[in-house]
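Dear H.,

Thanks for agreeing to be a second pair of eyes. The structure we're designing against is below in token form, covering all 203 positions.
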């Protein structure tokens, strides 16, 4: 079976399979979502909180550009926005919202309207791994700005979190190659807020 995954609007060959990074978070929520979106290319209407999250990100990005770095406990640093990242070895790609670059280190920055979940940590860890290669600088931690407090959460990346990123990426690719709907341990509460509920006949 030939696997193709949409990458910047273009189909790529099987040897160049690359998973969009945000599917790591989706896979952790439910492994069926990458299957529905990447393989079956289903496009159900997104729930209202998806739009709210995007609006929040836009506002925060705007504020981020105007504020000083002191709240990150950094004296100086160059800000980068919407940084495209791609890595053949990790088989991942995506666009990082923000990166603070200092002389010898980088700090990815992301914006989340709601509480930080395990999937968000995996997603930012993946961005950090790719960004470190992209800038050729060490990246040991990242920031997430959440809610209305605008207070950055500083997360130090652990080796086991990097390993998890690699494991999930391989699992997503394996599920797509397999071509069968993956099993899911999603709870009733998760399914009740999921736009794919109509496609899951075992729920
Ligand atoms: S309805 Fe439940 S099982 Fe189906 S994709 Fe959504 S979370 Fe997964």
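And this is the sequence the design step returned. I haven't edited it by hand at all.
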């Amino acid at each position: 079976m030939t696997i193709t995954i949409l990458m910047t609007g273009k189909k790529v060959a099987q040897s160049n399979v690359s998973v969009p990074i945000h599917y790591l978070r989706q896979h952790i929520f439910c492994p069926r979502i990458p299957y529905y979106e990447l393989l079956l290319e289903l496009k159900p209407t997104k729930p209202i909180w998806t739009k709210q999250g995007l609006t929040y990100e836009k506002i925060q990005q705007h504020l981020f550009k105007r504020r000083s770095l002191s709240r990150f406990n950094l004296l100086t640093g160059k800000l980068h926005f919407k940084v495209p990242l791609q890595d053949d070895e990790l088989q991942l790609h995506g666009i990082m919202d923000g990166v603070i670059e200092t002389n010898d280190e980088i700090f990815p920055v992301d914006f989340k309207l709601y509480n930080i979940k395990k999937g968000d940590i995996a997603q930012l860890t993946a961005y950090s791994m790719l960004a470190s290669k992209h800038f050729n600088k060490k990246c040991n931690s990242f920031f997430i700005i959440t809610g209305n407090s605008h207070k950055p959460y500083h997360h130090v990346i652990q080796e086991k979190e990097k390993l998890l990123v690699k494991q999930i990426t391989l699992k997503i690719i394996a599920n797509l190659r397999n071509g069968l709907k993956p099993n899911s341990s999603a709870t009733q509460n998760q399914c009740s807020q999921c736009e794919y509920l109509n496609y899951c006949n075992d729920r």
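Two observations from my side: The CA atoms of residues 31 and 171 lie 9 Å apart. The longest helix spans residues 159-178.

Warmly,
E.
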